[in-house]
Amino acid sequence: MALGSGGLWPSISALAWEAGALSCVVAAAWLLADPRRYGSGRRALALALTLTGAWAVSGAINGIHAPSTTLLDMARNLGWLFALYRLFTIDGRHATMAPIRPILLAVTFVELLQAAGVILLLMAAPTALELVGFHSFVSLGLLGAIGGLVLVHNLYGAASAQARLLLRWPSLVLAVLWGFDLTYYVIAYLSGSSPAVLDGLRGALGLVFAGLLALGAREGSEQLRFRPSHAATFQSLSLLLIGGYLVVLVAIAQWLAFSGGDFAAQMQIGFIALALLAALAIAQSRRLRGWLRVSLSKHLFTHRYDYRAEWLRFTRTVGQAGDVSASLEERAIRALADITESPGGLLLTCGDDGQFELAARWEWPTAEVPHAALPATTVSAFERGAFVADLDALRSGEVSADTCPPIPDWLLAEPRAWGAVPLIHFERLVGLVILARPAFSRALDWEDFDLLRVAGRQLASYLAENTGQKALAEAGRFDDFHRRIAFVMHDIKNLASQLSLLARNAELHAENPAFRADMLVTLRNSADKLNALLARLSRYGPTSVQVLAPVRADEVAAAVIAQFRDRHVVTLTESAPCEVSAERESLEQVVLHLVQNAVDASTEDMPVFVRIAADSLSGVIEIVDSGSGMSAEFIRSRLFKPFDSTKSGGFGIGAYEARELVRAMGGRLEVESREGLGSRFTIRLPLAAAAALRQSLEDAGRKVA
Questions:
Q1: Do residues 557 and 610 lie in contact, with contact meaning Cβ atoms separated by under 8 Å?
Q2: Which residue among 223, 256, 287 closes a domain?
Q3: Which spans in 510-570 are helix H?
Q4: N or C end of the chain, less CB within 10 A?
Q5: b/e for 234-262, b at 16 or more Cβ within 10 A?
Q6: pLDDT one-digit tens code per residue, 501-525
């Protein structure tokens, strides 16, 4: 049966067959030229496309039902069966195909049997092909299509998750091929003749095959997904529910009409009125609509996350202790960020002064975080509700600010901030992870909230355990320091014994010139040993504060700067008269230490800046340098830890001592630093007037009591 002439449909059919042939040949050539896709199945797919193109050419030239076209149809199917077998080798399943091999051999035998039948009928009588073999060939075609679909199901259904990303496009091609053939042969079997419309469309299959394989061969095809949106599904199911409601309404109304007797009309009207009122009341319920939306998302959609894979990746990221470049805090951020494909994040934890501050940042160097990052109201609100905050929803007003913890203004003003995940341990907020907005931004939903909340609790336990271990390690360092002091006391005791012996001998031999010379050498050696010992123990003396008194902070800063006049450029940028409540020697010791650290961190051509100002009820002394800077991890875990020094031969108690002195004077020491940019140390002490007023109020209160 040749393609007919006359009418529009034969022209459309011929064009479809020609387009299918051309697209298959082009796609086959492209696959052979690009070896990056489909692995070991690439050549077999190119062969199958070539045979499909030859079949389409024969159909366009000789006719759809010509013997050459029929034989090439069998060859096309054999080519796709061979391609299917080669696709099994992508993940190594060709070696374990014992249950599938009989089906593959059976389908291959069916195709060969069809080809042999066509050849025998042609040898017997060319016209007998349509008269004698129609039903036989249709039955064999049905068997081949069904067997092919079974093989496609096993190819894709039993594949691994990684292999499916590569197999889904060829599997879709094979499913379209044998699905179309199954439909074609079923219609032909039932009608007793070939369907003319499907005959014309068969040639267009080549265009579909080539397009799908080319789409799967392009870069990024693994990320392509066809998922109807939640909104579209919700609206479609809403329409379906409305339709079902109307059907039930009509059915009940008809039943009332048949059984209601004389009051049928009144019963119908009353029922319809009540049903419509109930529908309007339910439709206006926000709570019901929200519940319906969440229920549909939970039960009709595939979960966004593979929880087993996510948990394995989570534990692997947190447990990468061998990576010395990443601290536990940075790994904690990354473990949460990987869940939502966030490109960066921040971790806020409770510092030694009880305020939440920046503890670590991961791939987010531009975020500006104040020293006091979270107010107490926000911390208590997160502890009460363990609320995962969608910051975009808060900004847009989709979520009321009354239903979630009060988010600080600096966080809402940060454009990259996307979500805030609390880390709760024993109902206490251990930390807060701020996630950066991913490249493809989306609204967080119930599944994100559930997974992030559970992961946050797990991270909180890790951080709490790490904090306990560090406390034990610090206690061990104190024990070590006590042992060191024992050795120091032993050295001092030896020096004291040596000096006592020298004093006794001086009473007897003071007039001997040789003894006097030896005595001077001994005294000099003893003094050098004591000075070296004192230099190792402390640079600036004791850390206790005796008496607080009004002290001019600007004068103290000027005195310290004068000591560096010939050593390094230290500039006083602002020097407002500022009288604070402090101990002069202790304050000078702290400023001297911080300026010295700033000088050590800077090169010779980088000046250090000092600023004195009054801020509300506090006096402020700022020391700023443009040196190497410090990471948030170093500030949090090492800067103020005693006996942990980055300087050769240092005890590591200078910064710790400075902070404790400031605290003893009723103030606090704040640190802001950025690696490669520099550091700012800020000393905040109560103004003398404010301290005197507070002291007088406390004295008055004690007298009243």
A1: yes
A2: 223
A3: 513-537, 553-563
A4: C
A5: beeeeeeeeeeeeeeeeeebeebeeeeee
A6: 778 778 777 778 887 787 787 787 7
264 and 197 co-located in one domain:
no
Q: Is 478 within a domain?
A: no
Q: Are 168 and 37 in contact (CB under 8 A)?
A: no
Q: How long is the chain?
A: 705
Residue-by-residue DSSP string for 439-480: SS-----HHHHHHHHHHHHHHHHHHHHHHHHHHHHHHHHHHH
The DSSP string of 139-204 is HHHHHHHHHHHHHHHHHHHTS-HHHHHHHHHHHHHHHHHHHHHHHHHHHHHHHSS--HHHHHHHTT
256-302: pLDDT as tens digits: 665 555 555 666 566 666 766 666 665 555 555 555 555 555 555 55
Q: Degrees (nearest 5) of the Cα angle 147, 150, 154?
A: 140
Close Cβ partners of 687 (under 8 Å, ≥ 6 residues apart): 578, 579, 580, 581, 614, 617, 618, 619
User: Smallest Cα–Cα separation from 203: which of 45, 66, 14, 46?
Assistant: 14
Q: What is the mean pLDDT of residues 37-60?
A: 82
Q: Is the pTM of this model over 0.70?
A: no
The helix (H) or strand (E) run that includes residue 582 is strand 579-582
For residues 113 and 140, the answer to whether their CB atoms sit within 8 Å is yes
For residue 556, is it within any domain? yes
- The pLDDT value given to residue 507: 77
Residues 215 and 88 in one domain: yes
Which residue is listed with tokens 């104040």? Answer: 370
The SS3 assignment for 537 reads: helix
Quick check: 541 and 583 in contact, CB under 8 A?
A: no
E strand intervals along 616-651:
618-625
